[in-house]
Write a structure and sequence with these properties.
The protein is an alpha+beta fold and 345 residues long. The protein is built from 12 helices and 9 strands. 42% of the residues lie in helices and 19% in strands. The strands form 2 sheets. The chain has a 7-stranded mixed β-sheet, sandwiched between helices. A two-stranded antiparallel ribbon has the order 2-3.
């Protein structure tokens, strides 16, 4: 083992490193001089045969040569990578003079437009938003709403039952019951927006899933006059100051007296036409004075407190506002349908 041999090996390696023009060639040089089968590795394995005084001298020399070659390879690799990156960027140059692709602006579903507007109107009247589960118990959905066991609303044709005591809520009234139980004996003013479910024909005016905003106000000395004034204000803000409302006697288990609420037809302004079937009015919601049984079951003394409740179908308001001919369009997310509402969203 001669010192001259190691230095010649180093010079040859450095010369080859200097001359390589790409990363692949440099990897080949690394393999030639630094792999386990390289000449340097073989010389390193032969150190054990040398006398002690020469072993250290040649060990340091071999390590020095290896370090010099390794350093030269690392520096060359960094240079080659920089060059390759420059070449790649030059090839992938973007022509910024080309026109860009414009982003398509979507439109909000009329369901959400109407929901937000209705909520804003009732918040402006001092109502608060209450929420509750969509999978509800029979107790909250029916019993606390004064709906007896044999009421038609409990029939399997109307209600999605999960088991004997759990169901998909058929209205948002159980949210009112939960709010009353939380506020026992204190004045209450809430709206309950949310999805409801009933087994219904999936035609142009019905869907097995629909949404409601129910409202509840409980305080002392509340009467049907307060209900009418509240609904008149809502109708004027939602449909315009010229629209009038009409209350017709009806029946709901959780209110007494109960009323159906109609508004003057937008098509004929109350004169009568094909749209309102000649009546001049279109039904929009149900309402009434909270039944004493409902108050009592939910922690209120009906001798002290009274209240009113109402329920409005969000999709029905959307249909009336925008003259939508098929309720199913609201749920189908057809872009052509939604584009009509860009200006109002």
């Amino acid at each position: 083992m001669k010192k001259e041999t190691l230095l010649l090996l180093q010079d040859a390696a450095l010369k080859q490193i200097k001359e390589v023009v790409n990363s692949e060639a440099l990897h080949n040089v690394r393999h030639t001089y630094l792999s386990r089968k390289s000449e340097l590795s073989i010389l390193m394995s032969q150190l054990g045969r040398l006398p002690n005084e020469k072993r250290r001298q040649f060990g340091q020399l071999i390590n020095g040569v290896r370090s010099a070659i390794t350093k030269a390879i690392e520096e060359k690799m960094a240079l080659l990578k920089a060059q390759e990156l420059t070449e790649k960027l030059a090839k992938e140059k973007v022509d910024i003079s080309l026109p860009g692709k414009g982003a398509t602006v979507g439109a909000r579903n009329p369901f959400h437009i109407i929901t937000d507007e209705m909520v804003e109107i009732f918040l402006g009247m001092g109502f608060e938003i209450a929420d509750g589960p969509e999978v509800e118990s029979d107790y909250f959905n029916f019993e606390l709403m004064n709906i007896p066991k044999d009421h038609p609303a409990r029939d399997m044709q109307d209600t999605f039952y999960i088991n004997e005591s759990l169901l998909l809520r058929t209205h948002t009234s159980p949210v009112q019951a939960r709010a009353m139980q939380e506020n026992r004996g204190r004045p209450l003013r809430v709206i309950c927006p949310g999805k409801t479910y009933r087994r219904d024909d999936d035609d142009v005016t019905h869907s097995h899933q629909f949404a409601q905003i129910e409202g509840l106000l409980i305080d002392k000395d509340i009467n049907i006059g307060h209900l009418k004034a509240t609904l008149e204000l809502f109708v004027h803000k939602m449909f315009g100051e010229k629209r009038k409302i009409r209350l017709r006697s009806s029946f709901f288990p959780f209110t007494e007296p109960s009323v159906e609420v109609d508004i003057t037809c937008a098509n004929c302004s109350g004169r009568g036409c094909h749209m309102c079937k000649g009546t001049g009015y279109i039904e929009i919601l149900g309402a009434g004075i909270v039944h004493p049984n409902v108050l009592k079951m939910n922690g209120y003394d009906p001798e002290v407190y009274s209240g009113f409740a109402f329920g409005i179908g969000i999709e029905r308001v959307a249909i009336l506002r925008y003259d939508i001919d098929d309720i199913r369009k609201i749920y189908q997310n057809d872009v052509r349908f939604l584009q009509q509402f860009k200006k109002v969203s």
